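INTERNAL AUDIT FORM
Audit reference: QA-55
Scope: verify that the stored structure record matches its stored sequence.
Auditor: D.O.
Record contents follow.
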Amino acid sequence: MSSITVTVSARSGKTLADITIDKDATVMELKKVFAKLKEDMYPSRQRFSLPPAAGEARGKALEDSSKLSEYGLKTGSVLQFKDLGAQIGYSTVFFWEYFGPMCVYPLFFFFPHIFYPFHTRPVQHALVQKLATAYWCSHYAKRIYETYFVHRCHIILANLRAPGDKGYSIPKGFLFNYITCANYTAEICGWLLYTVAVQALPAAVFSVVGAAQMLQWAVQKHKRLLKTFDGKEGRAKYPRRWIVLPPFL
């Protein structure tokens, strides 16, 4: 094990700390050490960059999973620090994004007299309304589960990565053997069937807008995977697959 001592400075040039750390430590490990020196600077609030090269306004930002040695750092090297400000975790953001619709929809189902006071007679819910409510709530409950336990990815996709691995992998397993974004395929089909079941214009608009967004994400991901796995220099070749909606796309 070989250690190096790097200087952390503000953009103004003021030295904030000198940190001795293993040269093969990751940037995240460096952030954790800095957080111990500056208690209010938790890792997600930090950004380290290399000093800007001549003619550049800012230096290259360091990736959390990369090793310090990958940036050629050695004893005496200087890293620029930026305080990103108070951060809200993605899990918190996604929780409230999914928790809201999961709870609002059932309010209209169970308490229609509050939202439709002009309807004075007791409401008798049809089976399709009950199933639609259950589908809606289970969908967003699944999203919350994925947020905390599957890192916002489909379960099959999440299992492709080894612990700590943040690189791309070729999707495989079940429908992913034939479709790049099979998770979007299933979700689009699910919402289209939901629209057919409830036969309501808001549901149709929701499904069309959601499908359009997922189609855009799917095309971008497919292009990224084709570029990453190009079959050159020992890299795997991405297999021929549908993008998201066979036989159309």
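Auditor finding: record pair retrieved intact. The chain has a mean pLDDT of 89.
Action required: none
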